[in-house]
Every structure is written in structure tokens, then in C-alpha cells.
Amino acid sequence: MAHYRAGDSRREQFRRYLEKGGVLDTLTKVLVALYEEPEKPNNAMDFLKQHLGTSGPETADVETLRLEVIELRQKYELLLEENKDLKAKLAQFEPPKEEGQPE
What we know:
Elements: H1 2-20, H2 23-36, H3 44-52, H4 59-93
Helix pairs in contact: 2-3
């Protein structure tokens, strides 16, 4: 009987932990929303993920980041080209290196 109470106590502690963190309320709200959904989704897990916010970043955020990546790649390519041109110009003004001399 003592073994049963120890397990029960751990469950109660865990339940309080979930309650304190708002997990129980959030899960209840999402499950109620699924229950009240007039047309049940084909995949209940996707519904839960979407409503719990674990489906990923917002579409607007993704689009903003995608545009930023494109812009940074273009800037990177321009800087590479500029670097190449500047190295070529610098090479024109450097004296020729003789064999055997360290760089």
C-alpha cells in the first residue's frame, strides 16, 4: 500500500507542475477546440501542432527572412567581385616576386 501512495504522490506533484506551468489549461483549450471543430481534420496531430504553436515560424517571418537571405547573398556576391577587382589592382602595383623569396 505504501508503494501505491508514493506513486500517487509523484503523479500529484507532476499534475501540479503541469497546472502551474499552464500546460493543462493550454491542452484543454486545444482539445476543446478540436472537439468543437464542425469538420474534424484528417490529421489530429497536425491540428494540435498548429494550435499549440509548434508548427514552425509564422509565414510572414519566413518570408521576411527569405528576402533578407536573398539580399545578403546579392551583397555577398558584389563584395566578392569588388574584392577580386581590388586584388587585381593591387597586384599591378606590387613588385614582381622573385623565386626563392618568401611571400
